[in-house]
Every structure is written in structure tokens, then in C-alpha cells.
Amino acid sequence: MDTKNPVTAIESSAEFKAMMADLAALRADVAKLAGYVKSSSVSAAESAAEQVSAEATRLMGTVTDASKSSLKAVERQIDLHPMASLMLAFGLGFVGSRLLAK
pTM for the full model? Predict the structure, then answer.
């Protein structure tokens, strides 16, 4: 050991070398853990995105079906009451034009 420089004496000790090796192993373990957390987060995000996409597709199908049935119901009402439908359309157009004119 070099007694003139205490830092050199500490750095050359077996305990310091073991502590540095432990620190290096700890750094490697933390890096692995961060990698696992990142990959599991990405995996969870991808899974959630797939679920949202599937639900959106299902809801879009439901809305499309409901829109089609509503359109058919409106068409039936127009076929059953053509004059009332014509007067209602005229009245709504008149009111709409007055609101837009202001």
C-alpha cells in the first residue's frame, strides 16, 4: 500500500474492489429491471390499444345498425304520412333559414 496517498490506499483495498464490483452488478440489475418495466409497459399499452380498437369497432357497428333502423323508421313514417312530412320539412326549413339570417 501507498501510505503517502490515502486515496490510492483505499482504492487498492480488497473491500473497495468488492464494493465496486457490487455496485457494477447493481447497475446491471437496475438496467435489466428498467428494460423489463419498459417492455411490460409497451406490452400493456399495445394490449390496451387493441382492446380500445376492438371496442371502437364494435360500437361503430352498433351505431351503424341503429342508424340504419332509425332511417328505415323515418322512411316508413314519411311513406305513411307524406303531407305531414312535407309540411314539417317546410316548417323546419323556414325556421332554420330565419335563424341563419340573423
Answer: 0.46
